[in-house]
Amino acid sequence: MYSKSNPKLWKGRVDSQNDPKQFKHFQTVTFANLENIENQFDKVGVGLLGYAVDKGIELNEGRIGTKKGPDEIKKAFAQLPDLSECESLVDYGNVEYTKGSLSEVQEEMGRLAARVIQQHHQSFFIGGGHDIAYAQYLATRHIYPDASIGIINIDSHFETRADVQSNSGTMFRQILEKDDNIDYLVLGLSQGRNTRSLYEYAEEKGIIYVYADEILNDLSPTIKDKIERFIHQHETIMFTISMDAIDSAFAPGVSEPTVLGLNPHSVFDIGKRVILSEKTSSISIAEVNPNYDIDHRTAQLAANFIHHFIE
C-alpha cells in the first residue's frame, strides 16, 4: 500500500529562516503524491521513496523491524545541512506491506519507483528489507527495457538463495533467473555468511565478488579497476547497499549484524565511485532495523550515505 509522505518527520534545529547557506534538509524538502504527478521532460533534483516492509525478512526468518527504517533514516537525514544545493528534494512517502504476497508489494514498489526515476536526476529508495532490490530492478528494467543492467551490491551475503517463495535472501537469484541481460557484482562479502552452494551458483552465473577483508581501508587499484570495468561494460547501473555489510561496531541496528564487516569509509569510497557515473540510475539502502539500533547510529549512518551521495 502506498502512503503519502509525512511532513512531521522533517524537523530539526533552525539556524536561519532566510539564509540558504544555513539551511538543513528539512528546510528544503518538498512533498508529492506519486499517484498524481505528471512526467517531466527533464530529470531534476533528488527523489526519495521508502519501502517500509519487513515481510521479506520475516519470511527469511530474520529479525523484523526494518519497516521502521525509512522513517528513522528520513528523520536523521532531515537534520543534516543542505550542502549539495540540488535543484529539488522531494519525499514521496513510503510503500507499506498490509496483506497479500511479498511479490505484490515489490511490484507496487517497482511501479512507483519507476516514476521516481523518470522524474529525478538521482533516486534513492530506502528500506526496509533488502528485498527492496527486486522492486528496484523492476523499476530499472521498466525504464530501460533493452539495456544491459549492471547490479552493484554492497553486502555480506550473495542473497541468491533458492527458497520456494520470495524473501529478503532470494532477490538476486530471482533477477538472474528472469533476465539474461544482467550482471552482478557483490562487494563486502563475508565468508561466514554464504554456503558452498551459493559459491557454486556464483560460479555458474558468473557473479563477481570481493570479500570484506579485501576492502580494509583504501580500495586497492585492483578493486577500483574491477568496479570501473564493471560500470564501463553496462549501459545502466543499479546500486544497492545492505547496511548489514558494515561492521556491527558501526551499524548495530540491522537485521543480521556482521562481525569483521566493512568500515563505513570504505562504503563511502565505493559509493562515490559508483555514483560519479552518469549510468547509475538509482540507489537503494536497506536493512536498517531501529528495534536494535544504538543511539540511532545505524539510521544516522544510512542518512549520511544519502547526504554524501547527493550530487
TrEMBL record:
Its cofactor is Mn(2+). One of its GO terms (biological process) is L-histidine catabolic process to glutamate and formamide. It holds the Pfam family Arginase. One of its GO terms (molecular function) is agmatinase activity. Keywords: Histidine metabolism, Hydrolase, Manganese, Metal-binding. It catalyses: N-formimidoyl-L-glutamate + H2O = formamide + L-glutamate. Belongs to the arginase family. This is Formimidoylglutamase. The gene is hutG.
